[in-house]
Amino acid sequence: MSRRKLRKRISFFLYICIAFVSIFVCCLVTVANPSVFVKTFTSSECVEALRNDVALYASDMCKKNNISDDFVDDAISYDTMYHLQKAFVSGTLGASKQYNENAFAGMLEDFEADLEQSVAKSLDANAISADSYDGNGLTQFCRNIADYVESRIDFQYMNDVRHAIKRIKIISYIFIAVFVPTAAALIVVVSLKGGKSYKILQSIASSVLGASFMNVVVAAALGIVNATKDLVIYPLYIAGAFVDYFQLTVLTFTSCSAILFMVFLVLLVAGWKLKRSEKE
Questions:
Q1: pTM for this structure?
Q2: At residue 122, does pLDDT exceed 60?
Q3: How far is CA 213 from CA 2, 31, 110, 209, 276, in A?
Q4: Could you tell me if residue 229 is left (phi over 0), alpha (psi between -120 and 50 degrees) or otherwise beta?
Q5: What pLDDT score does 273 carry?
Q6: Distance (Å, rounded) from C-alpha 51 to C-alpha 57?
Q7: How much is the average pLDDT of 6-17?
């Protein structure tokens, strides 16, 4: 086999290896990264929308029971909703040592207890007996609000997300473990048997360029899906968090493509300089 044919074949297989490695690295950076999921679901927009939702429900409960809602803003604060949301997502996905799977349940019980104290103080300030409104009692009133908080945070798709992240992470590590050594071996072979140094660099550069284009294709495909597919997920701020998560994924693949293209340019320039020096 001629050196030219050898370089072409190795260049093609090297392109496959680099493309797969870069794609699965991007998956580990964003798609299968629980920390990124937590970040999107605890963004200021998502948490504030959650707080407004729960506060509105609590205010409506107050109106139905003919009591003042002056406790709502303090008891259902941004910080409280943020920590509850973070505890649930982090604990479910194992994204932080700070929160285990039972952290959310414990924090929700603390929230209900604090809420009960706040409502009791409000009732006392307005000279209303805690046992006199609508026959439900203070504890049941606060439990209803806590149950609503749980229903807003513990959405039905979280288990699917957890399993998907685990599967993608395992698959990514397996493919990276296979293709990285293969790519290294191909580079060694082409370096030893590929002929002139500048031709070897050009061959590797073409592989990197192909991998860069592959990441562009993936990013474009994800962008099209993001632009055309409607997420039927409620409440809307949960759907918004998924969209942000999706957009971060597109950005990751786009950034990876740009990095690979810069590597291609560096290799191309290095090959051009080698070619000039060999001719001189």
A1: 0.86
A2: yes
A3: 28, 20, 52, 6, 28
A4: beta
A5: 86
A6: 10
A7: 91
